[in-house]
Amino acid sequence: MFSKKQDKRIEKYQQELIQTHFEEVESMYRQIRGWRHDYRNHIQTMKAFAAKDDWEAVKSYLDLLDQDLRTVDTVIKTGNAMVDAILNSKINLAKNKEIPVHAEAQIPYALKFSELDLCVIIGNLFDNAIEASLELPKEERMIRVFMEMKGSQLYISFTNFCAGKKKNKVNGSFLSTKGVGHGLGLVRIDQVVERLGGYISRNSEDGAFTTEVLLPQMNRSYND
Q1: Residue range 133-149, pLDDT digits in tens
Q2: Whole-number average pLDDT of the chain
Q3: Chain centroid to CA 49: how far?
């Protein structure tokens, strides 16, 4: 009975997580579509300045456009469209919460597992890192993301600065202190990694928390 209730809670949490990720991605692309919609007007404005030989006005306008574009331009281009969508929506979310993110990722276009699995792992890792970062003063916040292929395995690493000293494991695991939702996120990550035959490691140090994931891939050419 307990197992069935837990499974239902996890299923509900997963559905809510996917909906949240979808809304975040949609918000990011809505900004991009809005900028593109205004593109013609921007061109006409600069043509008007140019027709008057007002090159200083053209330069100033270009500077404004460049600044505006930085708010919607894709931050990370990994080579994988789904990874780009998830990472960039989360980076945008972190930026809105005044959390700096240093991200580096190179991912093949073709991956063995589904986009849903990728969404669950990356989305939960990012959400956990953002939540922990919000406990710190703004000047101490930082999230580092690194993703690449290591041989035939996809390597994912998330590190975030966090409040407090090194956390201790209980029965081999770190316990969540953030309530039901956060705990289910950890469970979902572990379930997906186990099902995919992967490996996960969590490490706590004073002021920092790191999660590393290895996911096996099919032996194939990623240029196919």
Answers
A1: 999 999 999 999 999 98
A2: 77
A3: 40
* C-alpha 87: how far from chain center: 3
Amino acid sitting at position 214 = L
Angle at 144 between CA 110 and CA 139, to 5 degrees: 150
Closest C-alpha to 91, from 126, 62, 44: 126
Q: What are the sequence ranges of the domains in the chain? A: 76-216
DSSP per-residue letters across 8-54: HHHHHHHHHHHHHHHHHHHHHHHHHHHHHHTHHHHHHHHHHHHHTT-
pLDDT in tens, 58-71: 888 888 877 766 65
Query: Is the C-alpha dihedral spanning 96, 181, 170, 4 positive or negative?
Result: negative
C-alpha 52/C-alpha 214 separation (Å) is 59
pTM: 0.64
Q: Would you say domain 76-216 falls under CATH 3.30.565.10?
A: yes
